[in-house]
Structure formats: C-alpha cells, structure tokens
Amino acid sequence: KQEVTQIPAALSVPEGENLVLNCSFTDSAIYNLQWFRQDPGKGLTSLLLIQSSQREQTSGRLNASLDKSSGRSTLYIAASQPGDSATYLCAPLMSSNTGKLIFGQGTTLQVKP
Amino acid sequence: DGGITQSPKYLFRKEGQNVTLSCEQNLNHDAMYWYRQDPGQGLRLIYYSQIVNDFQKGDIAEGYSVSREKKESFPLTVTSAQKNPTAFYLCASIGAPGNTIYFGEGSWLTVV
C-alpha cells in the first residue's frame, strides 16, 4: 500500500526566501509524480508533473526533483512571494495499479510580506 | 474550454437524507476520482473509476456510492449511512497514466 508523507506540515517564511518542500513515498513503482497547489476552499491546481524517467522539472520559480529509487521528491520555490501562500500537495501515480491515486497530507505555506 | 464541473458548490443535508454530488468532465478522460477533504487535512480517496460501468472502492468508501454510466459523468451519493459527512468533496480525472490530473472546484457538504 502506497503511503505518502510530506514534511514539513506547515511553514512560515519571510518574503524573498528560497524554500524546499519534501515528499516521500513508500512504493517506488510509480509512473510519475505531480505537485499541486490548493488555495483555501478551492480545488487543486497542477504545478509540475515529473515522469518516472526524469530527475527534475522546472516552471518559473518552481523546480521539482524526483529520486524514484529512494522514494523522494522535493519542490523548490525560489524567491518566495506572499502570493505563494497556499497548501502544496504531492501525488505519485502508481504503475502497478494506475487507477488508485494517493495524496500526501500537504504542506501549508505562509509567506509574510 | 475543457474541464471538470462539480455541482452544487454548497449543499446542506438533513440527517437521514441521501444527497448526490455531480461531477462532469468534457476532457474525454477515462479515469475519474472522488476525494474527501476535512478542514486542515489532506485528500482521502472515496471511490475511483478507470472505465465506464466499472469502479473501485478507495480508502473511505463506507457510506458512499457511485455510478459510471457515461464516460463524462461520475456522480457521488452520500448516504444516510455516512455518519460524519460534513466535508469538502473534490472530483478529479486523468486521461492516461503519465498525464496531468485535473480537479474540479469542489463541493461543500454540511449536515444541518
């Protein structure tokens, strides 16, 4: 059974800091891993998708890395802004059962002006 | 534009009632999912469907039911057997493994 853990659960930083969010998963037989952003009371918005054959993916100030063998992914946010305040979730998509999609608990980020 | 539509946005249920949440997608996706989110918590999988007329239980299926009669529709019924249904419900879909997952805007269900 896939278990997904995100650390830290919450993070508060001043504007301008670079920060790293961590995601670990117990079953490394994944197709890909996706990072999402969720604003309060809203659905999830996809940020980055990393295929199992890739090591990293970048979009603007966001960079996600994947170490499939060790069951880890990190989301790096450069030069954080107050608008980055949200909850960030990761979800590995399994190869053995591509239907079941399990999420981590998320990291709630607050960026202070 | 293609996407996932959930309705209603807000729903109030009296104790003992069944209610149905709608999820419609025009992305031509095969797989669809229902998740429950409680305040300050992550997403928990209720049911998922990989193909029309087939669906599987997730981790918290008790008290819920679904149907998948059409590719574009995956309604969720919250039955009276669900003792604590007040939560935020999210529907998602994916076209194929390796593709991006899309989410609806969610539905808030409150028991009154």
Write up what this structure looks like:
The complex is a heterodimer of chains A (113) and B (112). Chain A has no helices and 10 strands. Chain A is an all-beta fold. In chain A, the strands form 2 sheets. A 5-stranded antiparallel sheet of chain A has the order 1-3-8-7-6, with no helix packed on it. In chain A, strands 2-10-9-4-5 form a 5-stranded mixed sheet, with no helix packed on it. In chain A, a hairpin with a 2-residue loop joins β6 and β7. Chain A is globular. Chain B is mainly beta and 112 residues long. Chain B is built from no helices and 11 strands. The radius of gyration of chain B is 13 Å and the shape is globular. Classes of the chains: A mainly beta (113), B mainly beta (112). Chains A and B meet through β4, β5 and β9 of A and β4, β5, β9 and β10 of B.
Output the keywords.
heterodimer; A: 113 residues; mainly beta; five-stranded antiparallel beta sheet; five-stranded mixed beta sheet; globular; B: 112 residues; seven-stranded mixed beta sheet; 51% strand
- N/C terminus separation of chain A: 41 Å
How far the N terminus sits from the C terminus of chain B, by CA atoms, comes to 36 Å
Rg result of chain A: 14 Å
- What's the tally of helices of chain B? 0
Name the largest protein-protein interface in this structure.
Answer: A-B, 25 and 28 residues
Low-confidence stretches of chain B: none
Mean pLDDT metric of chain B: 92
Give the helix tally of chain A: 0
How many β-strand runs of chain B?
Answer: 11
Write down the secondary-structure element order of chain A: EEEEEEEEEE
Physical arrangement of strands within the biggest beta sheet of chain A: 1-3-8-7-6
Q: What fraction of the residues of chain B are assigned to beta strands by DSSP?
A: over 45%
Helix content of chain B: under 10%
Helix content of chain A: under 10%
Q: Output the helix-strand order of chain B.
A: EEEEEEEEEEE
If you average the pLDDT of chain A, what whole number results? 92
SS-based structural class of chain B? mainly beta
- The gross shape of chain B turns out to be globular
Strand content of chain A: over 45%
Shape estimate of chain A: globular
